Amino acid sequence: MAGDMWVAGDAYEAYIGRWSRRVAEPFVRRLGAPASRRWLDVGCGTGALTSAVLAAADPAEVVGVDPSEQFLEAAGAVVTDPRATFQVADARSLPFDDGRFDVVATGLVLNFVPEPARAAAEIARVTAPGGVAAAYVWDLAEGMQLIRHFWEAAAELDPAVPDEGRRFPLCRPEPLGRLWTEAGFDAVSVGEIKIPTVFSGFDDYWTPFLGGQGPAPTYLMALPEARRSQIRELLRSRLPTNPDGSIPLTARAWVVRGTATA
To answer: I need a surface site. Which of 3, 110, 160, 248 has the fewest CB within 10 A?
Structure first.
């Protein structure tokens, strides 16, 4: 579907990037990789995971790859540590030798790769024997509340909406774990990370949907103005709101990890 390939850094940051940064560091710490390891960040986007690796894992190097030059420009502007480099690449065809990296990680990407099994095979190929490969994806089916509220309101007006919870099977733990197992990793496990996503007010929640980045905003901006207004007012009436106007939501990500066969 058009719009699934995220490309614009500023719009992504306003919509999802600010929350993805909060997931990245606990994900890196949970991996427990020793210092001075070689890391690959597959689908690095605007650099949230790369930044977390540099801050929490003391790597020897981090290479970030992404198909979007705009994302890479945004990442390079934020991440200035000389241990980090960025280059254009597709997750399905990584331009690296076999076993090149000690840790290969990918954040919030696999649901948007057209052939996730091929990407997982490439991740397995470039992970050193005994190295760790891990990924995290939003729980679009249930636990990513900011997106769930949107699709539930939209579906009330059009039951045929392209709900991400239905479109992306990897947003559930069982298929995510199976993807890693079928890629040949050992000791595969799936866990969760949950973070608060508190919006200062309704505009803080709603405005990023107008940026046209990702499935929900793309769907919204293709609608007539009258339908967009209906969705907006449904959401305004339903979102939980504190006395100060803030909107307290939470976001859950599923995390899969495995070890490359030695």
So the answer is: 160
Distances (CA, A) of 52 to 30, 39, 44, 79: 12, 12, 11, 10
How many structural domains comprise the chain?
Answer: 1
Positive or negative: CA dihedral 81, 83, 89, 90: negative
- What is the Cβ-side half-sphere exposure of residue 89, based on CA atoms within 13 angstroms? 20
Q: Does residue 2 sit within a domain?
A: no
Residue 42: CATH number of its domain:
3.40.50.150
pLDDT digits (tens, 9 = 90+) for 163-173: 999 999 999 99
- Entry pTM: 0.91
Cα–Cα dist 24/136, whole Å: 9
**Mean pLDDT computed over 17-21:** 87
How far apart are alpha carbons 23 and 63 in whole angstroms?
19
Residue type, 165: G
DSSP H helix total and E strand total for the chain: 11, 7
Domain residue limits at 203: 9-259
Residue identified by tokens 């009436």 is 237
Whether 1 is covered by a domain: the verdict is: no
Which strands, in side-by-side order, build the sheet including 247-259?
84-88, 61-66, 38-42, 101-107, 127-138, 247-259, 186-199
